[in-house]
Amino acid sequence: PPTTTPRVCDPSDPRPTTSSTRTSRPMPVERTFVLLKPDAVQRGLTFEVSERFEKRGLTLAACRMQQPPQGTLEKHCEALKGSAGYDAYLAFLTAGPVVAQVWEGADAVAAAVATVGDADPVRAANGTIRGDLAVDPARNLVDCAASKAEAARSIALWFKPDELMGGAGAPDLLRLPRPRGPGGGHGRRGR
């Protein structure tokens, strides 16, 4: 049988590094919405929580820390209106700043839901944000869109279109040629 010699991945080389990448179709870029709640911000977990999405392979398209207006939160929580914990939940979300984020990538909505974990941290799997970092179902650090429709609605509520970066037209930085210059491509003269 023919053998394939492994080769070092060179970002400027347009050839795929494995035969499986030749047959795979690129997945369409999908966006999802994530809200880091006041408890995540207060506990200093903003970067750790965000890193979980990056490690999952998603790309940050928008991020804003703010004390949101009451009206924005009411629209955000519209599906919960009339439920027993609605008023307490709104009070919690206004207790401190939140971080609104848009993440994108292949199957971003499902990837974010899996990364966040069950709403009850006790039932959330180890390795998920809530399973590893949260202890109280009422303060479970993060919300994320559960469907493409919910993601689109939340993104439109929290961000203007010109505030979103990335997307299908964004350059793939791993495919850009390496910078060349004096000193081995680092822009410095050799010593």
In short:
The chain is of the alpha+beta class and 191 residues long.
Topology of helices and strands:
Blueprint: H1 20-23, E1 29-36, H2 38-42, H3 46-56, E2 59-66, H4 70-76, H5 86-93, E3 98-106, H6 108-116, H7 129-133, E4 142-144, H8 148-158
Describe the 3D structure:
This protein is of the alpha+beta class. 31% of the residues lie in helices and 15% in strands. A four-stranded antiparallel sheet has the order 2-3-1-4, with helices on both faces.
Oligomeric state: single chain
Question: Could you give the order of the helices and strands?
Answer: HEHHEHHEHHEH
Query: Major beta sheet, specifics?
Result: 4 strands, antiparallel
Share of residues in strands:
5-15%
Q: Estimate percent helicity.
A: 25-40%
The total count of helices amounts to 8
Q: Compute the separation of the termini in Å.
A: 48 Å
Mean pLDDT: 82
Overall, the morphology is globular
Which spans have pLDDT < 50 for at least 5 consecutive residues? 3-23
Structural class by helix and strand composition: alpha+beta
Integer-rounded radius of gyration = 21 Å
Largest sheet strand order: 2-3-1-4
* Number of separate strands: 4
Can you tag this structure with a few keywords?
191 residues, four-stranded antiparallel β-sheet, 8 helices, 15% strand
